Structure formats: C-alpha cells, structure tokens
Amino acid sequence: MSLIVVGLNHRTVPVELLERMAVPDSALGKVLHDLSEREHLLEVAVLSTCNRTEIYAYCSRFHSAVGDVVQFLADYSAAPADELSEHLYTYYDDAAVTHLFNVAAGLDSMIVGENEILGQVRDAWQVAVDEGTAATLLGYAFRHAVESGKRVRTETEINRHPVSVSSAAVAVAGERLGGLEGCSVLVLGAGEMSEGMSQAVARRDIADITIANRTVENARALAERVGGRVVPIPEVEAQLAAVDLVLASTGAHDVLVERSVVEAAMAHRPDRKLLIVDVALPRDFDPGVGEIPGVTLLDLDDLKDYARRSSRRRSTEITRAREIVSAAIDRYLDERRQRMVAPVVAALRERGTEIRNGELDRFAARFGDLAPETRAAVEAVVDAVVNKLLHEPTVRLKESAGTDRGDLFVDAVRALFDLADASADQPEG
User: Would you tell me the crossing angle of helices 136-155 and 315-362 to the nearest 10 degrees?
Assistant: First the structure.
C-alpha cells in the first residue's frame, strides 16, 4: 500500500481554476465518501483551503489510484481530465510524506509560516476520521505531521511577521492606500478569515468597521469583538457607496456581489476610489468589478508578491523550520520502516516458537526420567539454538526495512518460513 497526494495550489494554477476545485465544508462529507468508494482508494482525507485543494489517500495501486483521484477532480470541477492533469502535482510514498509535513508546518503556503494551515490540516484529518474514510494509516502520517508543525511554531519565530492570508490582505491594502488611518472598512463574512482581517484592521487607526454576513448573529458577534457595527447583506450596495476598503471572505458558493451592484455604488461616488481585497474561494466579487473605473480589485494572486517579500524577511527562521521538519520526516520514515517489518519479524519469531514447542512436545516422553534442572537445561539449549538461527534474519529485515532489498527479504522470509502476509494490518503511516 502507498500514500499518495494529488492536488493543486496557489503556485500551480490561477485563482480561477483553484476556486473551481474548492470543497466547502458543507460538501466535504459527500466528497470524502465519493472518493472512498473508488476502487483503489483505501483511506482518504481532503484538505481544501483558499490556497490549495489536495487529496491524501492510501491506495492499493499507485497509477490506478491517481487515475481515480484525477477523474473525481475532473467530474467535480467539470474540467476535462487530460487538461486538468497538466495542472496537478502528484507525490508518492516518501515524497507524499514530505509534502504533508511541509504543508502542516506552513512551509508550502503562499504566506510561508502562516498559522491557519496547521489547524486546517488537523481539521481535514479529524473530518476524515469522523466520516470513517481515514483510520490507522492516514492517522499515523497526519498525527506526526501536526506534531512537527507545532514544533516549528514553538521553536522558531517563523510567524513573528504578518504570516496569514488575512493579515497579508490587510497589509497589502495598507500599502495600496498609503495607510489605513481614517479609512472606513466593510468586511464581508464572519468566518475565520474575516475575523482575522477584522482583527487586523481594528488594530489600525481606522474610522469605522462594518460587518456584513448572511447569518446576522455571527456578524453581530464578530462586530462586538472588533468594535464594529452590522449591516444585512441586502444593504451591501449602500455600504459600497460609502467605504474606502472592502475585505471579502464569505463561504458563498457563487459570486456574492455582481458587477452591476458595484457600478451602481460607484455612480454615487464618482470622485472617490474603492479598494476591494477578495480572498474568498470561490471569489465573492465578480472578476469584472476590477474593470470599473475607480475600483481596484485584488485577489489571492495579488498577494503573492507580498508573500515573497515576507519570506525574504524571515529567511533565517524559515531555514530553521526546514531543519526541524526535515529531522521530523527522517524520524517518521525510520519509524514507519520499522513498523513495516514488525509483523514479519513477529510472525518469524512466532513460527520459531511453534517449532520449538512442537519438538519439545514430540520428545516429552523421553524426558520423563530427567531431573527438572536437566530438563530446564535442555529447553534452554533449544531456546538458544532457535534464537541464534533467527537473530541474523531479524537483524537483516530491520536494517533493510523500506528499501527494495528489504522488500525482497520480506518476501523471501515469508516464502521460506510459510508466513502469512500481515501487511494489511500494519499501521504504516
């Protein structure tokens, strides 16, 4: 069995394609079960954020499993499978493990070191467990990746500068506007990303902040935390006519604000410019909004330059983080290799014990006249012979675990000693 990762992210595709692949929380259960029903996918987890959509799976056959995932993504996004394949990355076994660990540590993020991704990886694992599509194999890999990600954040200062998408959105807005002092801000959404942006602007000397969200109770709770006020979604057009900055990140499945709405709002403010930073996936604003005179529309693609500059400022901490992750990967792979041969070693030892007990039972009648201490000495000699005969095979199996040679040794030992294949039960990762 092999661990695979198939996905796309902010580096491999433009936001237009990335948003077509986004899996909202409401659809995640159905997506997991759809994937788990594919012939070659044994355990499955899905990580879908504003920066990436990735399928993690343990599979019975590598190429067939990748085909299953690609076909699912093609069906899900209504994109031809052959065209989609050009944008996907695929990692296998050790490379898949390395990718997962780097993702959890924030080293593969658009804003390197971002805080949100660790929780998103943990949540992806938990949802898969709750839905029954992930068990021992994926759990072992995800648990170690999350632990490694925690170490990166506690043992380095990789997140000392603004390193989340939400904080980057506010920082870029401040750069574009020459500062946020005195600005009037509208935040669309009341989820985790919107809260991060709201908290970030609330720390600036802004004029006011308004929260708009379909669930008014959530908007009101967020407004209380940041000292803002609430408006219902139908009043967004009126707010667009009055504010200087819009920060958008709702969970809407389709465009929330059409071009015509923004055009109508701008008609009431012909001499004032409007900056919109839309980090939702799928996007909240019609992309055509950016063509309206006086409107600047930024999305995730526009945050990439800030991400590069942020990474350069934290290069020393990023290097230290990579060292921590690399060491954690080495430990994990070593443990996994040992776990791979453990069932074979245990079965070999059990076979030796069976033979030892069988032979002692067969000659039990001849031991009847032996003194107890003499019988104990005979059994000790038999034990020593069995242990010495099995010692070298055991050492060779453990030393070569995880290599092509080790696979040959495992197959040879199983055949020579007539051992059952216990690999289906091994907690490999």
Answer: 140
Contact 158, 323 (CB under 8 A): no
Residue listed under structure tokens 């945050």: 303
- For the 165-311 domain, the top CATH level (class) is alpha beta
Give the end-to-end CA distance of the chain in Å, rounded to a whole number: 10
Instruction: Report pTM.
Output: 0.70
The yes or no reply on domain 2-160 and CATH 3.30.460.30 is yes
Are 171 and 162 spatial neighbours (Cβ–Cβ below 8 Å)? yes
Q: Which residue has the tokens 């067939």?
A: 64
> How many of the other CB atoms lie within 10 Å of CB of 217?
10
Q: Where do the structural domains in the chain lie, given as residue ranges?
A: 2-160, 165-311, 343-425
Active site residues: 50
How far is the C-alpha of 55 from the C-alpha of 201, rounded, in Å?
Answer: 34
- Alpha-carbon distance of 54 to 211, in angstroms, equals 31
State whether residue 250 is helix, strand or coil.
Answer: coil
Mean pLDDT, residues 363-389: 85
Name the band, by pLDDT with cuts 50, 70 and 90, for residue 161.
Answer: low
Strands (E), 174-267: 184-188, 208-212, 229-231, 245-248
Over the range 99-113, which residues count as b (16 or more CB within 10 Å of their CB) and which as e? Answer: bbbbbbbbbbbbbbb
